Amino acid sequence: MTPATSALLSHANRRDFLVRSGALASSLVIGLYVPIGSRAASGPDPNAAPVPNVFIRLQPDGAVVVIVKFLDMGQGIVTGVATVVAEELDADWSQVRYEYAPANAAIYANSMLGVQGVGSSTSIPSSWLELRKAGAAMRAMLVAAAAKQWSVAPESVTVHQGRVLHGASGRSANFGELAAAASKQPVPRTVALKDPSQFRLIGSRQVRRLDSAAKTAATETFGLDVRLPGMLYAVLARPPRFGATLVSFDPAPARRIDAVKAVVRTPYGIAVLATDTWSAIKGREALRIEWNLQGAESRSTPAMFDAFRKLLDERGAVAGQSGDAATVQAGGRTIEAEFEFPFLAHAPMEPLNAVVEMTGSGATLHTGCQFQTIDQMAVAQELGLKPEQVKVVTYMAGGSFGRRANPAADYVREAAAVLKASGGQRPVQVVWTRQDDLHGGYYRSMFMHRVKARVLPDGAIAEWDHRVVGHSIGEGTPFGQYMIKDGVDYTSVEGANQLPYRVGRFRCDLRSPKKTVPVLWWRSVGYTHATFAVETVMDDLAAAAGKDPVAFRLAAMKDEPRLAAVLKLAAERAGWGTPLPPGRGRGVAAQKSFGTYVAHVAEVSVDARGTMKVERLVCAVDCGIPVNPDLIDAQMEGGAALALTALFYGQITFKDGEVEQNNFDGYPLLRFAQMPKIEVHIVPSAESPTGVGEPPVPTVAPAVANALFAATGRRSRKLPLVAAGIKVLT
Amino acid sequence: MKYSLNVNGKNRAVEAEPEMPLLWALRDSLNETGTKFGCGVAVCGACLVLVDGQPVPSCQTRLKNVGRAKVVTIEGLAGREARAVQQAWRELDVVQCGWCQSGQIVSATALLTRNASPTDAQIDSAMNTVLCRCGTYQRVRAAIHRAAAALASKGQS
C-alpha cells in the first residue's frame, strides 16, 4: 500500500490545497507557518516553500492543542502524536489537548500511505520527524518572541514545562501570553531536534492518555453518538448473499410504522429511515423483498476449502525463493503440514455507522474516519460533488482492526447514497446492527497453507516449500496496482515469503482465486495466518530434530539481532526451560512485522478432561524508541486478546452462501475470565520508533498452539481450535 | 405511548412504542448516548444500565416494563463506589477504544456496591458478561482491585 493511491490524490489539486489551507489558517487562533522538513515524497511538491503548521495551535489560555491527522480507534495515537509534539515544544503535559484534523490530503497525507489515513502501524513511523520538527519550530518561535519582548539574546531564553524563561532577569511567560507575538516571528529555516537523552515525555510512564477522562465518563462522542437536528436513523436491507441482486420489494408494511419516514432504494440495498434506530430496524424486518440469487455465492464453507485445497496442488506465482536444491544435503526428517484459516470478521464493538448531511456548500461526513481521503472521495462521488466540497469530521472510533480502512469505503458510501435517495433534506445516520456487521463482508480472507520442510539431524533446515492460497485484498481496488506485483499481493504472503531463518532451498508460492466474498486487512493482515504456519512448523522441525524450540530458532536465525533479542528476552522472563507441573506446557513464537519485533512465550494448562486454559503470556517487544511505554503495554495486552479470540473461536462460515454467525453468541469474543495474565517487556532502543498496533497479534496464536503441543502432543492446524475439537476453558 | 421515565434522578418524557428497548429510548429519544449499542441481544454488556440498582442490559428492557423504576446510566453514576471506579480507571488508563467502557464501569460499580472487596473469582463472575474487543480485561481487573483498595482506605478514615 506504499505510495499507493497517488492516483486518487490527483483529485486534491494544488489550487484547492492553497485555498483550503488558507481558510484553515485563518480559522486558527494564530496562523503559524513553519517548515515541515519531512514532507512526504507523495505530497504535492517535496521542495515546496514552507507549508502551514497545522499540527499545533497555541491558545491564549496556555493550552497546546495538537492537531491529529490519524484516527484513534483505541490504539492511543492521539496521545502518541501529542507526546512527540509536546516533547520538542517543551510543553507541560497538563496543558496538552488534541483535536482531529480536517480532511486535506495535500497537507495531512500519511507519507507511508500516500493518502490521509492510517493503517499498517504507520502513524508514528511516518510522522515522527514531521511532528518533532513542528514542535521544535514552534518552540523556536516562542523563544524568538520572548527574546524580542524582553530585549535579550534568544540564546539566553529557555523553555521548560510550558514556560518560557529568561534566567538572568528572572522573567517568564506562558505559551498563551506569547502566542500572538510568536506567530509574527520568522519561520526558522532549520530546527535543532533534541538528543533522545533529553527526552522528558517520550519514554515516560507519567504521560497518560488524553482520552481517558472522556471515555471513562462516557462523555466522548463517537460516530454512532452523533445527533444532528432533524437527523433520521437508517438501516439497510442488503443482499442475503454476496453477488445477489434486488428484484423487487414492497415498502408498504414498513411505511405503516409511525416512526418510519421513508423507504428508499440505493445501489447497496433498501434503506429504511426512521426517527429512531429501533423503528428503522422494525421497518426493515417488515419489508418484503425478492432477491435474485443467480450468480451469487451459494457455496458452503467446506466446498470453499475444497476449492482452495485443489489449488494447493498446483504451483502458483512465486512470492519468494532462495537457495539451490542441488547444493542441499539429503537426509533428515520431513514435516508436511496443511493449514486451514477461516474468514474472520473485525467486529469492532462500536457497530459501523456514518452520518452524512447536506450543507450550503456541499456535504459533511461525520464518522470515525480512518481513510479520510478515500471516504471524502466516496461521499463526493455518491453525491456528485467535488471532494473539496465534502467536509470530514472525524470522531473517536469504537475499534476498527482494519474494518474502517476500506478502499471501497463501503459504509460511508452507503450513507451518502441513502442521503441522496432520501432527498437530502434531513441528515442521515446509517447504523449497522451486529448482524449487519458479521454478514457484511470485508473479512480477513480464508487461507490455506501447505508447508513441506526438511530438517537435518544437526538442526539445519534443508528445504522449505510453502504454498499459500487465499483471496487478494488489493484485487479489484484502486490499491491493487500498488499491492500486487507479478501476481503476488504482498499482504497475502507477508510472514511466509521471507523467513528470518536460514533455509537451504526455499520457495513460497501464492494462488489468489477470484473473490466472491469481499476481503480486507484484519489487524496484522498476512501475519495473522502466515506466522501461525511458519512458527508452528518451526516447532515441528525442532521436535523432529530433537532440539529445544528456542535454541533451534536461535541457531537457525539469520543475522537478526533484534529478533533474537526479543526471543531471548521473552524466554528468559518466562522461565523457559524451568520445570512445569504435569499438564502444562510452554510454547514460543517470534516475528518481525510492520517494523516491530515481538516474541511471545505462552504457558497453557490442560485438565483431565482435555480443556485448555492459557495461564500466562510473556511478551517482549522492540519497537525502537518507546514513545509511550504504557500505551505499548496496552497494545500488547489488547492484541493478545484479539489473537486469542481468533485462535479459540474466530470463524465466519457459509451455509449455501449465507453467513451462519449472527451475533456474539455465534461469533464469540474472549471473555474477561479467559484473559491470561500478560507480562510485557519493552526492549530499550535508540532506533527510530515503529508502530505497535498490528505487531502484538501474529505471535500469540502460534505460541499458544506450540504450548498446547508441548503439553499434550496435539497439533491443530485447523483454526479456530473449537472447530478442530479442542476444548477451551470458558 | 407516552412514558415518564426516571432517568438519573430526573423525570424524562418519552413517546414511543411499548416494545421499544430502553437502550434506544435513551440514545435516540433522550440523546443520552453514554449507554452504548453493541449487540442488541444482551450478549455483550455494552448497554448495561442500573435499574433499581441492578445492572441490566438496556437493549432487552422494554419501555413498557420500566415503569417508575430508577434508571441510572453512566451519565448519572454517582456515589463513592462509582467515583472510586472511575478514578481507578483514569489512573490506570484502562480504556482503549472506549466503546464498551460504560458497560464495564456500570458493572464494576454494581459489583463494588454489593461487595466492597471482591476476590478475583468474584470479579470474573461479575465482569464475564461484558465484552471488550480491545482486550482491556487485565486493566479492568487491576482497576477494580485498586478501587476496592481506595474504598477500604477511605472507609477507615
What's the arrangement of secondary structure elements?
The complex is a heterodimer of chains A (730) and B (157).
Chain A lengths: L5 H4 L4 H14 L28 E3 L5 E5 L8 H13 L6 E5 L4 H4 L14 H28 L6 E4 L2 E4 L4 E4 H9 L28 H6 L14 E6 L7 E6 L1 H4 L4 E7 L2 E6 L2 H10 L1 E5 L8 H12 L4 E7 L9 E9 L11 E7 L2 E6 L4 H12 L6 E5 L15 H12 L6 E4 L2 H6 L7 E9 L5 E10 L9 H4 E2 L2 E2 H4 L9 E9 L15 H19 L3 H8 L4 H13 L10 E10 L2 E11 L4 E12 L6 H20 L5 E2 L2 E2 L17 E6 L17 H13 L14 E2 L2
Helix pairs in contact in A: 3-5, 5-6, 11-12, 16-20
Chain B lengths: L1 E6 L2 E6 L6 H8 L18 E4 L2 E4 L5 H4 L3 E3 L7 H12 L9 H14 L5 H8 L9 H20 L1
Parallel strand pairs in B: 1-5
Antiparallel strand pairs in B: 1-2, 3-4, 3-5
Walkthrough of the structure:
The complex is a heterodimer of chains A (730) and B (157). Chain A has 20 helices and 29 strands. Chain A is an alpha+beta fold and 730 residues long. In chain A, the strands form eight sheets. In chain A, strands 9-10-7-17-14-15-16 form a seven-stranded mixed β-sheet. Chain B is built from six helices and five strands, in the order ββαββαβαααα. Chain B has helices at 22-29, 63-66, 80-91, 101-114, 120-127, 137-156; strands at residues 2-7, 10-15, 48-51, 54-57, 70-72. The mean pLDDT of chain B is 97.
List the total number of helices of chain A: 20
Mean pLDDT of chain A: 92
Q: Proportion of β residues of chain A?
A: 15-25%
Rg of chain A, Cα atoms, Å: 27 Å
Overall shape of chain B: it is globular
User: Spans of chain B with pLDDT under 50 lasting ≥5 residues?
Assistant: none
Strand order of the largest sheet of chain A: 9-10-7-17-14-15-16
Largest sheet of chain A: 7 strands, mixed
- Low-confidence spans of chain A: pLDDT under 50, at least 5 residues? 1-52
Give the terminus-to-terminus CA distance of chain B: 50 Å
Topology order of chain B in helix (H) and strand (E) letters = EEHEEHEHHHH
C-alpha end-to-end distance of chain A: 39 Å
